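Q&A log
Question type: sequence-to-structure
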Amino acid sequence: MQEFYIASNGGGQLRCGLWTPEGEAKAVVQIIHGIAEHIGRYDDFASFLAARGYVVAADDHMGHGGSVTDGLYGYFRGGWMSAVADEKTLHDKMAADYPGLPYYILGHSMGSFLLRTYLYTYPDALDAAVISGTGWEPMAKVKAGQLVCKLEEKRVGETNTSKLVTNLMFGSYNKPFAPVRTKNDWICSVDEVVDAYTADPWCGFDATVGLARDLLSGVERNEKPENLAKMNKQLPVLFVSGGKDPVGGMSRGVLTCIDAFKRSGMKDVTIRIYPEGRHEMLNESNHEVVYADILRWLEAR
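Response status: OK
Response body:
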């Protein structure tokens, strides 16, 4: 991975990674990572794509990984749309560096929600999108979460964490896997992946109240029919999810999302749900199958 930096719309610099093929490039794939992780966790998948002719780029979000210089983890300066704009900044740079190539984005977990916002904010920017580890929340639950965030923001401030908010947002994810070995069993069935995530100082931290608020605002935006209607109806979209992913409601939420896409008029939607998979299909025991499925889909564009 080659490192470079871009200016963030929230101020400061974002650490980015670049993976390039040895020969001629066939397309660009941009990766948007999830909450409380970093781009280094995608090195294997990005290297896989680069070895097959793809240029791959990704950035550490504000408040994540190597983009943190002030010690403040899990916070978006400028809010949700500032983070979405950061992805457009990276997109514009890569499109300028590799003009004329098809451009794809894969977003995972929180990155999938950022990507979904991207799809109706910049509807003509992409040639295809891969939505990994996404979900769909009842609006009453979203509103309740926003109220808790508002109260906790008054109590502790938006740049601090709150156990109440953390438990509300993520506390139920491990429950389906009891008895659990770690607090992160829900992300993957592979012990080595879970242990590496747990030991990584750039992973698993509590999000600030501000980021929880911003994430919920993104979820709310993404579920509005008027925003779904703004997407490019011809855009090919691939959904990738584990059947046992709690973020996707054990597939129920992701199927609701897919149905909403189709009802909004999206004409080219492909579904890949892996029944035994948990949240991180790119790291699951069958990740080689997942890699091959994504590659096959990209190659068909």
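Response note: The chain is about 40% helix and 15% strand.
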